[in-house]
Amino acid sequence: MSVVSTGLRTLVHREILRFVRRPRNTFLPPLITNVLYFSVFGVILGARVGAIEGVDYILYILPGLIVLGVIANAFENASFSIFHGRWNEYIHEIQTSPLSYTEMVGAYVSASALRGVIIGVLIGIVGAIMIPLTIGTGVGLANPVYALAFVLVIAVLFAGFGVMGGLWARDFDYLTVLNQFIIRPLVFFGAVFYPLDALPPVWRTVSLVNPMVYMVDGVRYGFLGIASIEPNVSLAVLAGAATAVVAIDVWLFQRGYGLTE
């Protein structure tokens, strides 16, 4: 007997089909965007920047670009799906289903996290194609277990944030505000394109408040084996944050926040 209920499997299946059936909207934009990132920052600027911590610049930015793709897509998928259901009033069908609140949140979070992971893998493939063409060496995984663990935790964390965003939003502009004015600034100041140790001491300390720093640093440790912060500490903090965010999502569903107004 399966431990996963039929209702949960059905909702997860529907949420996965929702983005798989629209590949031009789901997969093509991040592929094009990252080809541009690798071309401009890696190939053109990378030749001027040189190596960082013994790693060619185009290879150095790969983990940060993967994190950027994972969080953007995990967040967008969950927030849009929840808000679209509220906007068109079909989310009430899920609320009145025999699913528990934990199963409802679990379905939205798992499907959205899967989309984030798929996009992260696709960005890794783009890097694996473009990086050898640029510097003549391939892309390896110094610590594959850490790379996988960080990507999974980051995807779940931002899928959980996406559920919150979808419940909070009052119109589609709210989703744009969350993505453009909160998430992207945190990402670009999260040591995606530069090493943390390159900052003056004051700004390095300030940067440690930014959770993106721990995510980028952790994935970079998985790919390149270099880290400015102890990876086990980063992973523990992010796993704790992901657990707390998902628990808050379940609580919000129980209270009917954004669902009964």
From TrEMBL:
Q: Name one GO cellular component term.
A: ATP-binding cassette (ABC) transporter complex
Q: What is its main location?
A: membrane
| Any single Pfam family the record assigns to this protein | ABC2_membrane
A GO molecular function held by the record? ABC-type transporter activity
Q: Cross-referenced InterPro entries, in alphabetical order?
A: ABC-2_transport_permease (IPR052522), ABC2_TM (IPR013525), ABC2_TM_bact-type (IPR047817), ABC_2_transport (IPR000412)
All residue ranges annotated as the ABC transmembrane type-2 domain in the record: 21-256
Provide the membrane topology annotation: Multi-pass membrane protein
Q: Kindly indicate whether the keyword Cell wall biogenesis/degradation belongs to this entry.
A: no
Q: Which residues cross the membrane?
A: 31-51, 57-75, 113-133, 145-169, 181-203, 233-253
Q: Keywords for this entry?
A: Membrane, Transmembrane, Transmembrane helix
Compartment(s) = Membrane
Q: Which protein is depicted?
A: ABC transporter
